[in-house]
Amino acid sequence: MIEYLLMGALVLLLVVCLLQFMLLKRSSNSEAFQLTARLDGFEQAQQRTETLVRDEMARNREEWNQTGREQRQELADAFKGLSQNLSGLAEKAAERL
């Protein structure tokens, strides 16, 4: 009984393989060209996207550098002002003594 089922499965497998082969052979070259054209379109879209992402990352990096530079300058100015205030207070304290 199992032998008959295995033989039937094998025959069905061969039929499926034969049908697949016939379908592949029957498909025209125009489908292959259409697929190639679509793949080329996808590749170009990927390249455009990659370029845009790379440019955006470069702009973001420049923005962060500029922001960091401005913050460091602001902090330096604040410390300079604090230093001047402390110097003035030290001079006044020295005068009182």
Total strands: 0
Helix-and-strand structural type: mainly alpha
Residue share in β-strands:
under 5%
Gap between N and C termini? 116 Å
Outline the biggest β-sheet: none
Secondary structure tally, helices: 2
Radius of gyration: 38 Å
State the helical fraction.
over 70%
What low-confidence regions span 5 or more consecutive residues with pLDDT below 50? none
Mean pLDDT: 88
Question: What letter string, H or E per element, gives the SSE order?
Answer: HH
Shape: rod-shaped
Topology, element by element:
Layout (H helix, E strand, L loop, with lengths): L1 H25 L2 H68 L1
How would you describe what is shown here?
This protein has 97 residues and is an all-alpha fold. The chain has a domain at 51-97. Helix content is 96%, strand content 0%. The chain has 2 helices and no strands. The chain is rod-shaped, with a radius of gyration of 38 Å. The N and C termini lie far apart (116 Å). The model has no long low-confidence stretch (mean pLDDT 88).
Task: Write a concise keyword list for the protein shown above.
about 100 residues; rod-shaped; 2 helices; single chain; mainly alpha
Quick overview of this protein structure:
By secondary structure, the chain is mostly helical. The chain has two helices and no strands. Keywords: Membrane, Transmembrane, Transmembrane helix.
